[in-house]
Amino acid sequence: MSANREAMGQKQFAKGHFLFILGTCLLSLLLGILYTPIWGGETAFSIQFIAHEIVAEPRGLKLWAYLSIGLGAILLAGLVGLIRPGKACGLSCTVLAGIAIVLVLIQLPPVFLWGMMLPVDAAAWLPILLHGTALFVGLCAAGLLKNLRNK
Hints:
mainly alpha; transmembrane helix; single chain; 0% strand
């Protein structure tokens, strides 16, 4: 009976939890790539609304993009490790929940900055939508990982 419950718990993780955590990983990677100046030195989103000094020397923006990509990749690697059969969710779930929380926290500045631009630039709805979705999905993923740790 206990083995059956463990198997059901593993199925529940694979079906429900997996999608939120995978969504967090993919959104983090996507947003990091969109803010990486790889298209001729330009980012996918125009960031001209930020002060000229920041746009001319976008170290903070690059740091944000690389952090988003790196943490998303680490979370994805941890997710791959968690879906292995018989893998117990102990300290690794706590670490992954912490990474998901950091990914949520780094979404807050872009949401607020793009939100301030919305009255001026109607095109700001797309970045707000992407960052807001990453924020919501990341919160769900962090909660799910924390609950897996407690089981």
